[in-house]
Amino acid sequence: MKIYARQAVGSTWKYHETDDEGWDHRTVSLREDWTPVVAAALAEARPSSERDWGQVAWVSVDEWLRRPDVELITAVKFEEVWSLARGALGLPVEVRPYRGNE
Description:
The protein is α+β, with helices and mostly antiparallel strands. Helices cover 23% and strands 29% of the residues. It has 3 helices and 5 strands. The protein has helices at 49-53, 62-65, 75-88; strands at 4-9, 12-18, 24-31, 36-41, 70-72. A 5-stranded antiparallel beta sheet has the order 4-3-2-1-5, covered by helices on one side. A hairpin with a 5-residue loop joins strand 2 and strand 3. The model has no long low-confidence stretch (mean pLDDT 80). It comes from Lentzea miocenica. This is NUDIX domain-containing protein.
């Protein structure tokens, strides 16, 4: 089952979508004024991914979800935030898997 959640970290909101196994699939970071910092998908990861897409968590989120400052959100809300962030960052809304030397 996919999980959608957000967390306030300092002056940044972190939005996460997990895959069916509970691993981070897509993530968005927004400043408190809703300016996007990162909108990244694990499928797009490659050696230079932090420069191009931001940092995607590489750990299971089970323990993270138990934190009191984490709030579950709907898939619709996540998609709204994802689309707005990707558009503002000049990135396609669709996730395009990394296929090497592209």
